[in-house]
Amino acid sequence: MLSQVYCSGFQAFRQRLLPWVQSTALSRSHRVQPSAIRHVRSWSNIPFITVPLSRTHGKSFAHRSELKHAKRIVVKLGSAVVTRGDECGLALGRLASIVEQVSVLQNQGREMMLVTSGAVAFGKQRLRHEILLSQSVRQALHSGQNQLKEMAIPVLEARACAAAGQSGLMALYEAMFTQYSICAAQILVTNLDFHDEQKRRNLNGTLHELLRMNIVPIVNTNDAVVPPAEPNSDLQGVNVISVKDNDSLAARLAVEMKTDLLIVLSDVEGLFDSPPGSDDAKLIDIFYPGDQQSVTFGTKSRVGMGGMEAKVKAALWALQGGTSVVIANGTHPKVSGHVITDIVEGKKVGTFFSEVKPAGPTVEQQGEMARAGGRMLATLEPEQRAEIIHHLADLLTDQRDEILLANKKDLEEAEGRLAAPLLKRLSLSTSKLNSLAIGLRQIAASSQDSVGRVLRRTRIAKNLELEQVTVPIGVLLVIFESRPDCLPQVAALAIASGNGLLLKGGKEATHSNRILHLLAQEALSIHGVKEAIQLVNTREEVEDLCRLDKMIDLIIPRGSSQLVRDIQKAAKGIPVMGHSEGICHMYVDSEASVDKATRLVRDSKCEYPAACNALETLLIHRDLLRTPLFDQIIDMLRVEQVKIHAGPKFASYLTFSPSEVKSLRTEYGDLELCIEVVDSVQEAIDHIHKYGSSHTDVIVTENEKTAEFFLQHVDSACVFWNASTRFSDGYRFGLGAEVGISTSRIHARGPVGLEGLLTTKWLLRGQDHVVSDFSEHGSLKYLHENLPVPQRNTN
C-alpha cells in the first residue's frame, strides 16, 4: 500500500492549472447560501452547513428519502466519467463539478471518500506528448528538410501509463479541492492489501485517521503494479471480494469502512431491464437482490475494466454488507453538475439498490395500470360510465360513518400541526358528503355523450369523410393538499371523461384518502375497470412524479399557490393545468348599490377566506370615499374582524390609515383585505391587469354600460357583474365538480369540468383513396363540404 498526503509537489503543473480551476470553480452555480449557515468552521475560508448526521451502521437504507441521513459516503468515478471522449486526457469540467459537489457534502459534516479512475488516461496523454515530441526532434535532426514525416505512435502499455499519470491526476485533484479549503490524500491499493491482515489493518487505520482530520481520501488501484484478479475468489461472501477493478474496490472499501452510501457514477443513467439503447429498455428505479435473473447485460463502457454486470455484482455485495448503493450517470451535461447532491437529497436519480421490497406496486407500475385501465374505461358505453359514477355517489352516503371516522383520525393527527384554514379544508361532514353525492350525479348526467362526441364532419371527396371526435387526454396526475373531498370529485370527472388517473394526496389526509379511493375502486369494479384510478402511497416525491413524462399526459395541482408554482417548475415535458395564485378583485363603481356592495364584499371575503376564489383586493371609486356606502363596507369588515391593508392611494387620503400594503399582488387566504382607490373603471381594469392573477374579477354597479365595458375588457378566466367571486366554482357553474380553476390560455380556462379533460382526434374513412389522385392531372377533386353533426343530448 502506498499512502501519500499531497500538500506539495508538481508545483509547475499546479501553477499552470490553478487559474483554470479557479475560474471553473467560481463559475459553478451550486453554492451554499449564507442564509442557511448554522456553523462556520474556523479552519475554512468558506462557510458551510453542518447537518446533524448520526446513524448506526448495520442495515442499508430502505428508501431513497433516507439517503439524506448518510454520513459516510464513497463516490466511485468510472473511467468513462473521468476521461474525455477521445480516451486520452481528463474531462476537466466534469471533474471540477464533481469535486465541487463532494466539497459541499464534506463541508456539511459528512465524511466523503473518492474511488477514482483516470490515471491511465492522464498518463497516456503525457506519454503520447513525450513520444511525439521525441519523434519530431529525431526527425528534424536526421532529415535534410524541415518537412516531418507522419509519425506513428506505438501502443502504450497500461501499467506504464498509470505510472506516468498517477502523480498528475493527484495534483489535479489537490488543486481543485484547494479551492474549497479541503485537503485531499492519495491512497493506492492492490488486492493483496485486503488479503494481508496487517496491511488491511494499516489501510483501515489510515482511512479513519484521514477522515478524523477532515481530509478526503482519494483511492485508486495501483495500476502500475496491480496483478491479475485471483480466479474463483469473487463474491464469496461478505469478507471476500476480489479487487480486480474500481467497482469491486469501491464495494470492498465501502464495506470495510462501514459506509452508509456508495455512489457509482458511470456513463449510463443506471440499470436497465435490457441493454440501454434498445427500443424496450426501461430504467430500473429500484433494484432488489434476486432481480438480476431478469436483466440482460450489454457490453462494457468504452473505457475501463468493468461493465454494468460488474457494477451490479459489486453493488449487491456492498448492499449485503450494509451499504446502500446508487448507480447513476456522471457524464450527462444536464445532470452531472448536481447528480451527487441530488442522490444524497433522495431525488429519483439512477438506480437505487434496496433490500426492502414495497408492499404494493411502484408508481411506474401504477402509471401503466392507470393507462391500461383508462383505455378500457374509454371503451365502455356512456351509460356504463354513468352507472359507475352513480354507484360512487351512493357509496359516499351509504358509507358515511366509515368515511367520517377515517377523517376524524386525520383531524386528530393534524391538530396542532396544521393552520386553521388547512384544518377546515381537511374536515369532512355529512353535509359535505351529501353535496359531493349531488355533484357526482350531475357529472353522471352530463357525461352521456362526452367521449366520442362528433364535433365536425367534412366530406373531403366522394366516399372520403372526415370526423373530429372527442377523446380522453390519457393519464392525469392530480396532486392535492388537505382536500379529501377533492378525490371523489376528480375520480368522477376522470371516469366520465374516460381518463386514467393517478392521485397524490397530502399525508395529512392519509386515512380519508385511503377509504375514498377504495370506494372509487369498488364503483369501478362493477364494469371491470378497477385499476383505472390509482392512489400513490409510496414515498414518491412530487418532483419525481413530475418527471414521469412517458406515463403522465397532464398534471393538475390542487392546493396552495406555492404547491402549484413548485409543480410548474418541476414538471419536465408535462403540461400543468392550474393557477399559481387567486388574487381576486372587486371594483365598486360610483353607481353601485349600497346594499348590494356590502353583501357582495362580505360573501366574497368572509364566506370562505381560504378559498382561491375569495376576494383579496377591493377597489373603491374615489367618489365613494366618506359616503354611507363606504362607511357601511368598512363597518361590516370591522364586525367580521377583517384586517385591512391600505393601498398607496387609499393611504394618502387618510390621516390615520391602516397598515400600508407591502405588495398589491398578495393572496392572503385569510381574513385580510387590501383596499385601494381608483378614479375610473378604466383605472380599475388597468390595476387588475397589472396586479391580478387572471382568476376572478367582479364589478359592482347599477350602470349596465359600465358593467359591459368591464366584462368585455377585463382579461381574466372569470369576470362577473354584481355577483360574488365565490361563484367561480365548477359545482356552482353546473359542471358537477371541477378538477381545478385554470388561468392558462391554452385548452381549458376557468373552472375545469368534464369538457376540460377531453381532447380530440380525427377519423378519416375512405375507399382506396391516395393523394396522387388529387394532383393536377389526377382523377379526383377536393370537395371540403361541411356535413351535419349529430345533435348533442343535453337531457
TrEMBL record:
Q: What's an example Gene Ontology biological process for this entry? A: ornithine biosynthetic process
User: What SUPFAM superfamilies does the annotation carry?
Assistant: ALDH-like, Carbamate kinase-like
Q: Which pathway does UniProt place it in?
A: Amino-acid biosynthesis; L-proline biosynthesis; L-glutamate 5-semialdehyde from L-glutamate: step 2/2; Amino-acid biosynthesis; L-proline biosynthesis; L-glutamate 5-semialdehyde from L-glutamate: step 1/2
Q: Name one Pfam family in it.
A: Aldedh
Which reactions are catalysed by this chain?
L-glutamate 5-semialdehyde + phosphate + NADP(+) = L-glutamyl 5-phosphate + NADPH + H(+); L-glutamate + ATP = L-glutamyl 5-phosphate + ADP
Sorted alphabetically, the keyword list is:
Amino-acid biosynthesis, ATP-binding, Kinase, Mitochondrion, Multifunctional enzyme, NADP, Nucleotide-binding, Oxidoreductase, Proline biosynthesis, Transferase
Q: Which Gene3D superfamilies match?
A: Acetylglutamate kinase-like (3.40.1160.10), Aldehyde Dehydrogenase, Chain A, domain 1 (3.40.605.10), Aldehyde Dehydrogenase, Chain A, domain 2 (3.40.309.10)
**EC number annotated for this UniProt entry:** 2.7.2.11, 1.2.1.41
Which PROSITE patterns does the entry link to?
A: GLUTAMATE_5_KINASE (PS00902), PROA (PS01223)
Q: Which NCBIfam families match?
A: P5CS (TIGR01092), PRK00197.1 (NF001221), proA (TIGR00407)
- Name of the featured protein: Delta-1-pyrroline-5-carboxylate synthase
Species whose genome carries this gene: Panthera leo (Lion)
